[in-house]
Amino acid sequence: MSLFEAGLTMRATPWSVLQSLSHATRPATRLPIALWKRTFSSSACLQLRTSELADTSLKSIKVDPDRLWDTIHSTAKWTEPKSSPSIKEDIRTAGLSRLTLGKEDRQARDWFVQTTESLGCKTYVDQIGNIFAIRPGLNSDDNGRVPATFAGSHLDSQPSGGRFDGVLGVAAGVEMLRVLNDNWIETEGPVGVVNWTNEEGAKYPISMMGSGVWAGRVSLEDAWNLKSVHPVSEVTTVKQELESIGYLGSIPASHKNGVRIGAHFELHLEQGPKLEVARQAIGVVEGVQAYKWFTVTIKGRESHAGTTDFANRADALYSAATFITMVREVARSLGGLASVGMLAVSPSSVNTVPGEVRLSLDIRHPSDKALNEMLKTIQGICRQIESNAENTSGGRTHLTRITIDMKEDFASNAVKFSPEAIRCVEQSATDLLGEATKFQRMTSGAGHDSVCTSMHCPTAMIFIPCKDGISHNPSEWCEKEDCAIGANVLLHSVLRMDRLRKERGEFE
Amino acid sequence: MSLFEAGLTMRATPWSVLQSLSHATRPATRLPIALWKRTFSSSACLQLRTSELADTSLKSIKVDPDRLWDTIHSTAKWTEPKSSPSIKEDIRTAGLSRLTLGKEDRQARDWFVQTTESLGCKTYVDQIGNIFAIRPGLNSDDNGRVPATFAGSHLDSQPSGGRFDGVLGVAAGVEMLRVLNDNWIETEGPVGVVNWTNEEGAKYPISMMGSGVWAGRVSLEDAWNLKSVHPVSEVTTVKQELESIGYLGSIPASHKNGVRIGAHFELHLEQGPKLEVARQAIGVVEGVQAYKWFTVTIKGRESHAGTTDFANRADALYSAATFITMVREVARSLGGLASVGMLAVSPSSVNTVPGEVRLSLDIRHPSDKALNEMLKTIQGICRQIESNAENTSGGRTHLTRITIDMKEDFASNAVKFSPEAIRCVEQSATDLLGEATKFQRMTSGAGHDSVCTSMHCPTAMIFIPCKDGISHNPSEWCEKEDCAIGANVLLHSVLRMDRLRKERGEFE
């Protein structure tokens, strides 16, 4: 049952009253779709239609910064209890620990369903636990045949994560619903908020899992059968946990025959320092860069650190150090990124020249082509290091031989968001901030659920500054004002897209 | 009871027969020192006195390569059983696993005592388990008042060690005793073979432990109280294990009031590739280089590898890579060595720029002064890396700040061996090899028991080539011929030193 089902009653009741109704007490009268659709738009109350909103009036419709802030931090109460006896109360450092599909995630999900339903939405849970809350528009039906324009993100967190990553986007979506209600705004098509399952991939190791299944890039079976890695378990699977927390829905998790999406906007903290350093309020995200992950194995020869002169060493760690410095130079010169985050040395003894090093390599570039060029150059560097190994001319190459092997573990192509969705964000930012110097177009360095939605609908993202660029950490922080600016851009982007979709005849 | 006690009988019995007598069956008649000392030199048998040996006749006295080879490999039977069901029989790859003071070490010690006693030695075990086997000379007493000229090394090994490290020096000492007996040679002073306890420091973590206690650089209490680290145990101590294997002697472990040493020669495999590369048979070791060990902690800032551009990173691993490459360049330019053998990255995630790296640094130089100069330059490099951290000029230094801290863990000063002991080795090498191109003077990169003996008596070392410079590894290998050349140089060095000590009136 949802507010949809309360059709006529709803129209006679102020939103503020409706908001206070609990899930259980709302009336259950079911009306034919055609009827309450018409009723919804023909209410006697003064209502604004999106298509009637000029840019100037749009500009005056804004989120409530305090209410948004409260939403963000009140949802943080569902967090795993710290092992320390005294839970930190300082919201600037307390962070968030809400692994997907745990008890705390269920609490956050329950809140999301209850809140969005109380704000006039109908909620849908699909087979992978994605929750779609849809607020009807002037042109809606109850079966999702008219796809909604969504604001979306995720409520799960890293094991020791921050309070904004994902949560900000969902909370701003909820705030959007409130602002629409406060202002008696009726959108042309339905709008909604979506909470994607397991974006982090921290407990079940596929990130963007829920949106990935929805988009068809991850199979439902694969996702269902994932086993917990945090804690490691051979028993607990995604499907079991979905079932046990009551979020194994029956709707297909599919862009084709599940809940369809008309457009998707995601507000997120940047997770990097660019906006903060540039003192800009908004990043208009044009896409997500391509990236590849490798395991690099460098083999040399163990030898005694005191008795082996440099000319007779095959020092795997020295070669690794050379690799690390050279690879960064390549990335810098080609406008990409390269990072070595993991490195293990063998045999790991203070007076033994390492015989083997394994390291991880993460390379990124906004362009697939440039990424492949980077990769080629890096492979060239490997050959160069191998042939530069000292003393190879002396016929004793077995003493100084270095070999480098790169194994690709993961690849994600570059994503370009839809130009019209980007334009909605950029126009909103321009209108709200007044001048173009307050924002920049940028490419997301990290993956987000929007990567998956962009495969099937117009998608764009909005970034806000992130203190010191720190994320996935309890000290992750955004300023209240920045959250509000971001939520305003999100709200306006959704409304502009709704208008655009109307203009394009999508609701006819 | 020892052969000393069999005085007169011994003189009447050919050495070959004596060698076949077991410890238990040898006669027990005790004679006054003065008597058997005289008797020993006045036997009717044809005997050579060291002082009567001209260089030309010395040259013809040589070890038996096959017998030496057999000794080396037969002692390898006391090795810890491999976990694999089939023990490798190939001596080229089987290696040796004989941690100090274990059952296998006891077996090797028993063999050493029994063999040296059967070869005419009296054995002494001191409080730290060092075993001194002394063969009387023309000028000997039974109380060690005349210090012997020793060949010495160790029978313990690394957990997964080679068959030559230490064993070669002891086996060559035993072979020396056999050659002296075969040739009816009487030395002027006593000569001996010493098996030092726990040279490796693998099970009880002080290397050169037995010789260190003897030399007074490690206290007996400290050594006794060491706890096993292989396997880790809070219970098993050196003293307990010495007692349990029957090698807790009563003689003070002291160069002052224990067994005194007139001179010490140690034959060892090089453990590096220099001789092999230079195709030389002998290294005349002049000393041991100075070295220092450090723990280096590099702190930066964790950040997202996809979202943090280079200008805003404080990448601890990139700084470590720069450190590793720069430090090697410093060492190379100053004629020393620098090695990073251990490195740990935190937080160790493929898409997180590392916030902290800890690494070990081992620096070495034959000169203490030059080592300190190296250290100063390296400290300068640390400051340089700290100040080179990007973007520090932008007033946002907290984003890109790198700090490097170096903590000294261990230091060992340079050791210069005694010129006359070196000369004994060099003259022996010259005489035996014919030309000076067949050997080189060198500095030992690693520590050896000779470092400790050199503090109190003329000491020198002899190196032989080591296949591929590999040591502390089952594939450690020396050729039979090289072992024999090394043993000959050892034998002749001891005899030359004996002659020299006689000339200097040390036995009067």
Largest sheet of chain A: 9 strands, mixed
Helical fraction of chain A equals 25-40%
CATH architecture of the largest domain in chain A: 3-Layer(aba) Sandwich
CATH topology of the largest domain in chain A: Aminopeptidase
Oligomer: homodimer
Estimate the strand proportion of chain A: 15-25%
The number of domains of chain A is: 2
Overall structural class of chain A, as computed from helix and strand content, comes to alpha/beta
Most residues in contact: chain pair: A-B, 62 and 62 residues
SS element count, helices of chain A? 18
Which word captures the global form of chain A? elongated
Radius of gyration of chain A: 26 Å
The overall average pLDDT of chain A, rounded, is 87
Distance linking N and C termini of chain A: 27 Å
InterPro entries (chains A, B): Amidase_Cbmase (IPR010158), Bact_exopeptidase_dim_dom (IPR036264), Peptidase_M20 (IPR002933), Peptidase_M20_dimer (IPR011650)
Domain Peptidase M20 dimerisation (chains A, B): 291-386
Pfam families (chains A, B): M20_dimer (PF07687), Peptidase_M20 (PF01546)
GO molecular function (chains A, B): hydrolase activity, acting on carbon-nitrogen (but not peptide) bonds, in linear amidines
